Amino acid sequence: MNFWQRKSERRTHLDDAVAFVKHCFVTARTRHEAHQRSWPVLEQLSRDPGLMSLLIAKNLSTPEILQRTNYPVLGLELELNPHFQLVANCWIPPPEADMVGTATKTIHHHGKLLLSTVTVFGPGYEHWMFSKPEVADANQENYSMRLLEAAPHPVHHVSFVDRYIAHLPLYPATLSITICLWSNSVQTSWLDYVKRMSLIKHNEDRLRELAKRVGVARALDLNLIDYFDFYPVEGGFRGMRDRQEFSRGPCADHLHSLFHVLQSTKQSELGATLVERQLNTGAHFAERLLIEKLLADLRAGRPIAGKLSDCHLNLFHTRFNKLEIEQSLRAVA
Ligand SMILES: [Fe+2]
After folding, report:
1. Which of 65, 188, 238, 322 is a good FRET partner for 22, with 20 to 30 A between their CA atoms?
2. Does residue 44 form part of some domain?
């Protein structure tokens, strides 16, 4: 009898998975152990045939999903509690075939955060993992790092990204969805609760600046480190002192990606019903006409492509390929 079969029929597999992961985080001696104990459940979740409909139902229950601006990876919320966050990341394929296998963003690390990820849909991305970046020339902001792994992250595969480990997902050929389990690498404290308060969560960048200036960053555990992002340059890797995140693209692009996800995961009927319900609530949708057009395309089975916005495709330090990474690796070897 496996984990799922022991559980009540009234609850969804997703509820059970979240409850189990929570149990791991409450009882494990370390956050690393909690992640490790969660991996079999993440893997089982990826085999759950009802997962996509649960994900869609959960995220299309509010108008916000139809009002969002565009980010290159479409995030679907699953769970947020003081111990961890679970989110499904939908990796939208690039518009040109020759961009498959190129960088989706900078080579980056997540500071003190831990990440377990499982691919639940699609071919998955190729994932490169590097050693913790070391300063080679502080004045030039040059860094060196070693390649730890370059491997596919196919469906059902669980991967773990440790604290400070630099890594990079490459563009997949078609839509790929991963479920990400995020947590801090130190045990839960009241500070986690404070940080989860929505006021703080939504102002984290501003608070991080404020904390830097008044020197309370360590107390607030705001994950402060100067260099999170790196990209290949001649002779090695350049570190970026200030993170330049992707700007948000237009809502219209986000809507194309959302409907692409509904169609590709064969959730057209459920998706259409839920979108229509939101349209009938009287909420304001700046792109109501486009939503209605995409809804008609979804119902008629007309193909809908996802969209990366221009601001995502033209960001200089995120546009590089494997060859350039390999040249930099050889230069710092
Ligand atoms: Fe990452």
Report:
1. 65
2. no
